[in-house]
Write a structure and sequence with these properties.
By secondary structure, the protein is mainly alpha-helical. α1 packs parallel to α13 and α3 packs across α11. The protein has one domain.
Amino acid sequence: MTAPARPADPHDVAGAAPPAPAARPPARDRYFDLLRAVALFRVVLYHLMGWAWLPVVFPSMGVMFALAGNLMARSLKRPAVQVVRGRMRRLLPPLWLLGAIGVTGMLVQGWSPDDDGHPGWWWFHLTYWILPLSDPPYAEGVAGIQGYVGEDWAAELAGPLWYIRAYLWFVLLSPLLLKALRAQPWVTLAAPLVLSGVLQFGWLTIPGDRIPSAITDFSTFGACWILGMAHQQGVMKRLPQYVVPSIAPIIACVGLWYALRQDFGTGHDLDSIPFAQALWSFATVLLLLHLSPSWTEWPRRLRRWDRVISLLNSRAVTIYLWHNVCILIAATLYDRLWGFPVLELNVPWLLESSWPVLLLVWILLAGCVVAFGWVEDLAARRKPRLWPST
């Protein structure tokens, strides 16, 4: 197991909240909502199973950043300061709730300024739980609750927060990125990929701990974010229809070839090879955005999933923030079944399987949606709902 409403646009920071029940979402948004729901499910599945091939089948983080970039470009028809402030308002309250619960739990278990020997910096770094311009700190080696919460739960709690940090920086940079995209579209699209290659091959070294991680995230997923903006701006429509299906597989193959040369599949995944991740994610997103079917209504095979897709989009931030902790709790609870000899002797294969744990994870996530999801509604200035599946 390894331990991602605004007035004119109803979508949330990491997911998409549906419009008011009386309104019908734009046709293109149905496709985007499907991509976002699949991306979120894949993130949970990957963090439980740890299968290295899952990010290859569907690079969720690249897809999520691209969809967010598309929505950001759409929103920037309004004043940039207003848009950035609105995005931050939707992003931060769910994080604050997570931090209030998590940091309180760490303090109760003995976390204190003396842990790192620099009390002043400790207090300063706590502000990253309020404004995550860098990774928020957490207590290392925190004990769990025997039989209920596994050890080092704080690390699992903080694990997904890199995405929130990266998302915040993309939001802050979006007005400049959009101007650059309009002035030099192809240079702007290629710049993060070039930067990723420069960092991967050691041609540029950045000192420190916090700045390099932020720059690596930008170089890895920046092209996907900008690609989403380019799609919304109609940049890709200027190309002949055959161009994207011709070049995207080549870029993807280069990324996969490089990953294989870096021992991909033997204890490594795309996340540990940023340059390969950047190329593969960019190529996949390029193809997905090129397809972009205009659905006036859900295809027949997808109609039964309408409520599930709506729920995942409405509570994408809550699910993403809490899924690692839910995985840890589910695995800890399921391990308790080994204490029943009848199960251990007769169905050991069932106790070793991760699929029942996955079901338990989603049951716990449903509880998180009910308990914490309403914060997303408050952040978007909507009436709080416990189960927004419509």
